[in-house]
Amino acid sequence: MAKREVVVIGAGVIGLTVSNRLQESGAFDVTIVAEHIPQHKSVGQRESTGWASPWAGAHWRAWAGDKDTLLQDMEQTRPTALWYATKVDDVQELRKSELPEGVAYGLKYSTLLINVPHYLSYLKAQFESLGGRVIQSRLDHIREALLFAQTRTDPPLVINCTALGSRSLGGVNDQNMYPIRGQTLVFGYVIPRGDGTVVIGGTADRGSWDASAHDETTQAILEKALALESDLVPGSSGLSFEQRTELLRRSIVSVNVGFRPARVGGVRLEVEDFGGAFTAIHCYGHAGFGYQSSAGFARQVLQIANGLTRPSDCPRL
């Protein structure tokens, strides 16, 4: 049987992971169409704040509650009484003397950390090595995905992974989507991400579309980071807190602002029929847990796609 054609809209971590999973299954011929695509950039080189994936700190920590078995399943595709205690290493409860002021309970553990620019470039390269196509283009309406079909036998299956873009994408216009603004700092040393940098932060300003960086927020992040980990500035013993804060500030490579794509009601994962013209699978609204749940949601999209029937496969009377 011929492969079914798929057009994925969006090249963030969800779109790229979904595309890889579909392409490697051997049952689909996938094209990614996106306004923004991963490019290997120098540290600190800015991307659009509307494209959330390049801004993430991207480490694994549990978002799912003890009874949220669906999100637990999505999160534990990678990676005491907490459900995720067996998914990470060296889980320890912090003693009261180790907790910052105002904090009632804390854990520490070893976890996965992703260098986001490198990981996105890897996903794109992996997808292309499997025979997938990547086209950079802005779509104003979801039906425009049909223009990128390689054949005309059947309309392609469209998979919408546009995250915050689903709010303005014609034919979708999901007003339940909203931003969670985050400001983070990238430093040139401390805990390397493989390229000698580390992300520290950040903030979670729900509903804020403010794309500018605020110096007072930068200062607050610096002070909180030093309060939690005094060794962030090597060789600074004997210096005052203010002096260590200033030394840490001098090592800032970039100050980033990005919008996590949150959604009232949670992630939208469902099939929609567009009047018989084409079928779409929506997969967006992952807020701040896109990286850690991307493989799990890609598996779900593959299962849904495998269960959909192509028009040409339907019996004709």
Automatic annotation (TrEMBL):
GO terms for molecular function: D-amino-acid oxidase activity; FAD binding. GO terms for cellular component: cytoplasm. Coiled coil: none annotated. Its cofactor is FAD. InterPro entries: DAO, FAD-dep_OxRdtase. SUPFAM superfamilies: FAD-linked reductases, C-terminal domain, Nucleotide-binding domain. Signal peptide: none annotated. Residues 88-301 form the FAD dependent oxidoreductase domain. FAD binds at residue 162. GO terms for biological process: D-amino acid catabolic process. Pfam families: DAO. Transmembrane segments: none annotated. Keywords: FAD, Flavoprotein, Oxidoreductase. D-dopa binds at residues 260, 288. PANTHER family: D-AMINO ACID OXIDASE, D-ASPARTATE OXIDASE. Belongs to the DAMOX/DASOX family. This is Nucleotide-binding domain-containing protein. It comes from Linderina pennispora.
